[in-house]
C-alpha cells in the first residue's frame, strides 16, 4: 500500500514538473503526459516495475532542458577588452581578432539578424597552458552568458555526445544536452576543448567529427536530436568555441566551418610579467599569505620562470609559484619565519624538487 501511495505522489510531482516547464513544445508535453498516464495504469494495477523509474527519470531530464530560458547578451567591446587584459598579458593579435568577432556579433544583433548563425565558430589553436580556456571564459563573461566546458579528450564514443536511448540500461543524455541543463539557459557559451583528441580510433573519431559538424553547422543544429531525449533540440542560440593543440586529426569539412585563431607561446619576458602581475597575487591569496610575507629578488625571476627548461604555457609556472608559497606558509605556521625574502642562496630550497 505504501508503495502504491508513493507511486501516485511521484506521478503528481511529475505532472507538476511538466506544467511548470516553460517553453516546452506542445507535442513533447503531450507525449510526456501520455507516459504519465501509462505509469498511472501501472500503479493502479499495483505494478512498480523498473520501467517506472526509467520513464520518471526521462520526464525529469526532458523537463530540465532550458526550452525557453535565455540570458540577454551585453555586448560591450570596451568591457571585453578589459576582461581579456585582466586575464591575459600580451596576445594583442589574438585579442584584436576576438574583438572583431564580437563586433560582428554586435552589428548583426543591432540589425536584427541571427548573429550566431551567420558567424563562424572560433577555433583556438595553441599548445597547452597558453590560455585557450580562459579566453573562452572571457568571451562568455563579455557576453553575459553562462559558460560550460566539454573535454573532448574524454570522448571515446559518439554516444557520449549524442546520448544513449532510454531503451538501454544506464541510458543518459549526451554531453551537449547535459551542458544546456547545467547552465540552465538555451544560449550558453560551450567550449569543445581539445577536439583533436576525441577518440584515438580513426573510425570512431570520424563519427565524432561528423556529429561535431552537425552540432556546429547552423543549417543542421536547429534540430539536434539526442538519442536519449529523442526530440529535436534547437542549438542555434548556443555560441560554440573549439580549442585544439594542433589540427592534424580534424576533418577538412569541420575545419571549413571554423575560423582558426593561432595562439603563440609565451616568451620568457612575457612569463615574468605574467608571474609577477597576474599569477603571484592570486597564488599568495590562495595560500593564505599576506602582502609582504613573501618577497622575491627581482633578479631571480628568470630562474623561477624556467627552472626545468622550456615550457610553452604557464601551468608549470603556476605550479612552481604554488610550491614556493606553500613552503613559505609552512614556515610561518611553524613559527620559523614571519617573512621570507627569496635570494639566489635560498631559492633552490623553495623551488619544487
Automatic annotation (TrEMBL):
Residues annotated as domain AAA+ ATPase: 118-264
One Gene Ontology MF term: ATP hydrolysis activity
Domain of life: Bacteria
InterPro entries: AAA+_ATPase, ATPase_AAA_core, Lon_lid, Lon_Prtase, P-loop_NTPase
Cited Pfam families: AAA, Lon_lid
GO BP term, pick one: protein quality control for misfolded or incompletely synthesized proteins
PANTHER family xrefs: LON PROTEASE, LON PROTEASE HOMOLOG, MITOCHONDRIAL
Protein's name in the database: AAA+ ATPase domain-containing protein
Species of the source: candidate division WWE3 bacterium RIFOXYA2_FULL_46_9
Lineage, highest ranks first: Bacteria, Katanobacteria
Amino acid at each position: 500500500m505504501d508503495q502504491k501511495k508513493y507511486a501516485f505522489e511521484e506521478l503528481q510531482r511529475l505532472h507538476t514538473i511538466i506544467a511548470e516547464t516553460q517553453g516546452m513544445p506542445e507535442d513533447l508535453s503531450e507525449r510526456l503526459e501520455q507516459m504519465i498516464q501509462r505509469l498511472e495504469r501501472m500503479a493502479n494495477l499495483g505494478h512498480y516495475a523498473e520501467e517506472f523509474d526509467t520513464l520518471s527519470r526521462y520526464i525529469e531530464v526532458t523537463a530540465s532542458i532550458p526550452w525557453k530560458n535565455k540570458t540577454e547578451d551585453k555586448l560591450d567591446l570596451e568591457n571585453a577588452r578589459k576582461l581579456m587584459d585582466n586575464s591575459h598579458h600580451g596576445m594583442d593579435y589574438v585579442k584584436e581578432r576576438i574583438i572583431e568577432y564580437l563586433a560582428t556579433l554586435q552589428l548583426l544583433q543591432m540589425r536584427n539578424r541571427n548573429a550566431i548563425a551567420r558567424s563562424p565558430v572560433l577555433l583556438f589553436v595553441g599548445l597547452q597552458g597558453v590560455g585557450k580556456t580562459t579566453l573562452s571564459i572571457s568571451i562568455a563573461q563579455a557576453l553575459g552568458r553562462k559558460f560550460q566546458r566539454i573535454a573532448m579528450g574524454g570522448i571515446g564514443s559518439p554516444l557520449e555526445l549524442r546520448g544513449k536511448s532510454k531503451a538501454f540500461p544506464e541510458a543518459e543524455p549526451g554531453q551537449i544536452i547535459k551542458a544546456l541543463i547545467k547552465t540552465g539557459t538555451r544560449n550558453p557559451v560551450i567550449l569543445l576543448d581539445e577536439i583533436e583528441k576525441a577518440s584515438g580510433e580513426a573510425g570512431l573519431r570520424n563519427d565524432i567529427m561528423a556529429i561535431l559538424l552537425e552540432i556546429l553547422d547552423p543549417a543542421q543544429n536547429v534540430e539536434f536530436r539526442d538519442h536519449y531525449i529523442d526530440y529535436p533540440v534547437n542549438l542555434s542560440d548556443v555560441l560554440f568555441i573549439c580549442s585544439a593543440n594542433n589540427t592534424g586529426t580534424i576533418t577538412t569539412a569541420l575545419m571549413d566551418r571554423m575560423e582558426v585563431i593561432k595562439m603563440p607561446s609565451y616568451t620568457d619576458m612575457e612569463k615574468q610579467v605574467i608571474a609577477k602581475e597576474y599569477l603571484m597575487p592570486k597564488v599568495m591569496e590562495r595560500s593564505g599569505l599576506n602582502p609582504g610575507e613573501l618577497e622575491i629578488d627581482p633578479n631571480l625571476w628568470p630562474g623561477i620562470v624556467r627552472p626545468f627548461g622550456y615550457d610553452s604555457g604557464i601551468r608549470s609556472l603556476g605550479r612552481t609559484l604554488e610550491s614556493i608559497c606553500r613552503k613559505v606558509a609552512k614556515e610561518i605556521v611553524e613559527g620559523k619565519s614571519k617573512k621570507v625574502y627569496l635570494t639566489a642562496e635560498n631559492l633552490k630550497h623553495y623551488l619544487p624538487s
